[in-house]
Amino acid sequence: MTSLHRFSHPLTFNILELHDKLACRGFSVLFCWVPSHVGISGNEHADNLAKSATDSLNCPVPLSDIKKYVKIKLHSNWQSQWNLKDANKLHSIKHLPAGLVAS
């Protein structure tokens, strides 16, 4: 398990986090090394097909689209939280959090 700590890939951290959650709930997780598929007929071809499939999905998203998505998501979450606070004295006069305009 300690050898996983030296990697910085985000998936590694997700695996470690999931491992910790499961361990806290009493589950036992066993990590084991699996040898490569070298020498297995058709494996190289399958690897190349898999790589080509993921390469075609690697299209950059414009920063403006990312900003727009984040802004919409943030406003949506903010509105949801605002709606849950029905005891808020401002609810009777204002249905949107400050700075938001209904779209």
TrEMBL record:
GO terms for molecular function: nucleic acid binding; RNA-DNA hybrid ribonuclease activity. Residues 1-55 form the RNase H type-1 domain. This is RNase H type-1 domain-containing protein. It comes from Araneus ventricosus (Orbweaver spider).
